Amino acid sequence: MKLNQLKATELKELLKKKEVSSLEIVSSVFKEIKCKDKDMNSFITLIEEDAKKSAEKIDQKIARGEKLGSLAGIPVAIKDNICVKGNFCTCGSKILEIFVSPYDATVVEWLKKEDAVIIGKTNMDEFAMGSSNENSYFGPAKNPYDLKRIPGGSSGGSSACVASDMTILALGSDTGGSVRQPASLCGVVGLKPTYGLVSRYGLVAFASSLDQIGCLTKDVKDCAMLLSVIAGYDRRDSTSINFEKKDYTKFLEDGLKDINIGIPEEYFEKGLDKEVREAVLNGVKMLEKQGLKTFEVSMPHTDRAIATYYVLCTAEVSSNLARYDGAKYGFRPEGESDLASMYERTRSEGFGDEVKRRIILGTYVLSAGYYEAYYAKAQKVRTFIKEDFDQAFKKVDLLITPTSSTTAFKLKEKIDDPLTMYLSDIYTTSANLAGIPAISVPCGKDSKGLPIGLQIMGPPLSEELILRIGYFLERSLSSRSSIPKGA
Amino acid sequence: MEYEAIIGLEVHAQLLTESKIFCGCSTKYGSPPNSQTCPVCLGMPGVLPVLNKKAVEYTIKMVLAVEGRVKEKSVFARKNYFYPDLPKGYQISQYDQPLACGGFIEIDLPDGRKKKIKITRIHLEEDAGKSMHIENEDTKTLMDMNRCGIPLIEIVSQPDLSSPEEAYLYLGKLKQILMYLRICAGNMEEGNLRCDANVSVRPKGEKGFGTSTEVKNMNSFKGVEKALEYEIQKQIRILESGGKIEHETLLWDEKKEKVFSMRAKEESHDYRYFPEPDLVRLVINQGWIEKIRKTMPELPDQRENRFIKEYNLPEYDAGVLTSSKDLADWYEEGLKYYPNPKILSNWVMGEVLRELKERRVEIRDLRMKPKDLAELLKLIDDKTISGKIAKDVFKEMAETGLLMHTQKKAEEIVKKKGLVQVTDKAQIEIVVGKVLSENQGSVKEYLAGKKKLFGFFVGEVMKKAKGKANPKMVNEILKEKLKIGDA
Ligand SMILES: [Zn+2]
What ipTM was assigned to the predicted interfaces of this complex? Predict the structure, then answer.
């Protein structure tokens, strides 16, 4: 087996035993990228030279017997809306095509501190707006299971490069499902942590009250390992939770006794693909076999989540994206002398259609005379959705649902129908609105051989628990070719 | 018909915190353009604001000084508009939930009455950058972001002011309080204190409000008075000629002494305010407020009253001496060495203030210390020099102190210049004798009843003595000698 096909935990062992070098691992990853990424389009920027240099430094550290960080020598791909100092941060947009970030995001700083090797910036829907990666200015990333299909979005580049062994670990960002949905469609693990658990400093804002950086990994243990590095209080983010740092890998093998699972009926209604439904319920059965009790629960405001989400996120978008005006950095068209036309042309030519659609929607919902009817009302509904979860978590410890209603669809299939596209997030947006953690783990494939994801949601700061359940399911279901092991 | 004006002021005061409101950059005035910036205040993609606690503390001080109400919970909001001096495309301000409301500022009217001007609200926000238009180089505009992110408090008064003079007095009082609190440099010309006004007029005695206009860009205290006077007269002229006042925003042109229309209210901005999602709600508990209350300095009104009571000063003196904290501190320091409040007051209000005015400097720039003045006054009391000579010595002390940065003590000057008063009776008698024998004609006239000539003799004696003769003794000796002649 090639090094790039291994998991972080396995590579860590090999490095420890000095059976491989970090440079060998990093080189294997770049070899794979060179071989595949012309077709896959997972990466927007490669950071090969720096990556190899840091790998060499880590190898020297190993040789000298120095203390190593917890992710020493492990390649990590970073979604291109997370800042890495001295590198492009395009957000998949023409408007930031030439923008180089002058600073490291907190998560990047912490990854570097743990000796992880940053290998590149991954493809994404423009400013993380989209569910198919087709909104990228740099062309869509492809699904490794079928290059004619989408990898999901918006963290499609990250999920695809993990699934196709072009990296070991990846970071994405999840505002309405942008880590979990592509993880599901590419057959990898995707975690969106509790809002505030991971610092947003250096994550280019899409919808600040919903955005959260998440992990895309080959298995749950890697996910726990990566989360242990990126989670933690950061005073540069005022919404960061002051919460002790912990090692999430420690709890994976704790027992499953006395855990009650809720199955929200609203997540299994019409619109859900039959094969997806069966695969998810099969996963639930596995847990029942272990003695876990399942309960039907009701989340009455589920059908309002998408509308609420699109009012709130577009409002924040209209404000968060105002800074891209051509005045300071990024794209500015030539030849404009007056301010108004500079703004107009910069933003007309620099942003893609979906981004413009959301800016216009958001500007509308915040405007005088409409604020109460849209933004204020959506905030109220958001609290109802939160209450649905509060109620459910009084009865059960966690909820299991599908991550996506279908498996990966074809490129261009939905691109001209934004409303249908928006429904891709129907099972995932609620966790963002409620600020709770949720993970997507692979739970089999459909008849076309496309991966299916199962979503586990828990109350705030229940990452330990949902990771533990995910870990068990993963071993029982062995849905990824490289996953079967033990169980 | 007689009209009365209704004026409300919105004052912006830059707070004297060391660092900016949402980042660690310095707030020092007059540094090279853009030398005090960072990714946060430049609005780079991915950055987040962190609130400066000191800025909140300073705001609370102001609220306590005007006896306003600090709200336990307040919310920062985004004010969205496009301008190149606003790098994020929105200003972080406060909207429907400001930090404080209520309170008042009392002004002293010229007729001796006092008037309370009510405060509507006080809130905290960030300053914008500064555009610099370069005229010669075909309309280039350059940006300086040093000012961007300096904390500002906005103090909104109720429309309680009924003349430009009252507005002037209110602004002066506001500045006085800000400077007593040491939270603002209070300089309108440097822009760290700014003022906008809402102005309307109505026939005297009427209750309703007329249509108001907003006057901006008044860059000095005098400018505020002039601009308001201009606008009020303009409105009265319009009404008198049967016209209607239009809602509009006007800019004061200090050179032309006219207002110009900036934009009509109809086309006014819709700022699309909404709660800032990157900051949590600001919670100020009572304990914090009480802690700040303990650090509050004596305020101008309190100090003025104390001066009247404790030092038995006339109200006028107390008012002048407490007009600035520095001056009052200087005066009280002087009292330690020269405990005669009224005489010291006369000198401070007379010589010291005249000196400051002539040199256009502040009291803190005066190299002469209160102790030095006290020593000078003691020389008068022990008859070493006359009051008249003391004034010359004062000038010299102030001058050498200011120009040569070496403070000459009064005694030194007196000795060096041989200014020590002649108090030797025999010596004075010789001079008097000389004067009388040189002016025998006048002596005859005096003895014949022309008593007015007494002053002439005194003058001649002093001239001969180069001003050093003790005036009281000159008088006595002259009277004695002329009486002898009489006999
Ligand atoms: Zn800064």
Answer: 0.95
